Amino acid sequence: MKARLKRMILRVMSPFLGILGARTEARLERLERQINILQDKADRNALLGAVPLVNQIRTLKKISALSEVEFKVFSQWGEDGIIQYLVSHVPLPNKIFVEFGVEDYREANTRFLLVNNNWEGLVLDADPELNAKLKAQDICWRYQLAAKSALITAENINDLISSSGISGDIGLLSVDIDGNDYWVWRAVSVISPRIVICEYNSVFGIKHPVTVPYQPDFNKTKYHHSNLCFGASLAAICRLAGEKGYDFIGSNSEGCNAFFVRKDLSDGLPKPSPAEGYVRSKFRSSVNEQGVLTFLSGSARLDAIKDAQVYNLATDQLVKIADLGEL
Length: 327
Hints:
Layout: H1 3-13, H2 17-59, H3 79-87, E1 96-100, H4 111-116, E2 120-125, H5 130-135, H6 139-142, E3 145-149, H7 157-162, E4 168-175, H8 181-187, E5 191-199, E6 210-211, H9 220-223, H10 234-244, E7 246-251, E8 257-262, H11 274-277, H12 299-304, E9 309-312, E10 317-320
Parallel strand pairs: 1-2, 1-4, 2-3, 4-5
Antiparallel strand pairs: 5-8, 6-9, 7-8, 9-10
């Protein structure tokens, strides 16, 4: 049970807590532990079921697109399979990862690396209960996993990583914070990951290198109620990757994550242009001003945010999305 749900239940039951009090709280704690145990067992079963897929992927010499190797165990979409393909083709002397934007880490890009490949790493999230949530799971004692709760900014990201004892050449970095993704990855200098996964916003199209303007406390719902104006376009992320010495390898088939490999290690991997690798997302997560899902898709998503401002990296200007022209 998520802590948020537990708090909601406690608020509803508050008139009765004078009678039930600590006994009710203890029951909720036991229920939460039982759910975590069941989830851990389900995770182990899913892990066993993925073994044939991992073995099959390791035998593949060359692929034309990352969608050919997708599968999901712990990732939100098919990133687990893509990562398995990349780690079997890129030399990785230091099997260390850093991932930020993990919520409770039940669904994450690096969890399969942790439990299947026995990597170690650091996860970061703004949730102040991150450590408590991880300690309730069996991965905390089974594996080398560090966690920090912090609002991640371009100013603090290097200190957050280096203070955890991680620096230099590492295996993988995963960036997914629904906002300042471009600005935070641009600021990262204390590590040199061989593989990078960075979320992009496909609603911004492929023609323009645009990102939301940098705000240390960026919140996508506050920036635009629809939750559609966040992050950066694939063109912006690929532009940054090139500046940092990475080749674009492709996108996941859901159109939200881009994959990069350091140029000195990318031989034999697909190298589409941003236009070739762009995938328009089909998931419909837009909301109205009351926070209710509106299920917008296609051009309706773009129309909803046409008056929002983005930063155009090509012109160094803030512009309305409507003024960009064709996306």
